[in-house]
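Hi everyone,

Forwarding the result from last night's run.
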Amino acid sequence: MRRHAVALTAALMAVGAGCGVGTSGPVPAGPPASGLRAPGSVRSYAQVYFVGPYGVQAVARRVTPPAGPQQALDLLLAGPDAAERARGLITEVPPMPGRPTATAGSGAVDLYLPVPVARMNGGGLGVTQLVCTVANAVVPGGKQPSAVDVRVHEAATPGIWTVRCTASGNVLPVPDAS
């Protein structure tokens, strides 16, 4: 019993003494941090959403600033690159007759689909990829991506439906304000 008490005391003293915090006060550590984007600055990366073994995943792609919704959408439509495919990422956005387009304005994005979602094979994950990719592009108004309304326009379908991409990469409808 005494041996266990001695071992426990020695372990606690080692943990307390080995925390690495000295008593010398502040020490100069070099220049200020760099590499972080200042608020309001232009991004040089676009978030593109692909499907992986654990669901929808964002990848960063280098872009020519400013990265607008159409530029991000074009990166998505090009599919995952070799390194992304090696990580198991794929796209569920099916080939379509025509090309989806996206335009930004007033803190929202209009996403125009050349076919109705109901005719898109595996449409659920593909729609998530489309919506989250355009919502995370630079949008006028400085909104957080999860607060960006994406207004989806489907070809040959009346009406527009509005959704948002959550921080976890899920697409949720925006409640009607009326």
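The chain has a mean pLDDT of 80.

Cheers,
N.
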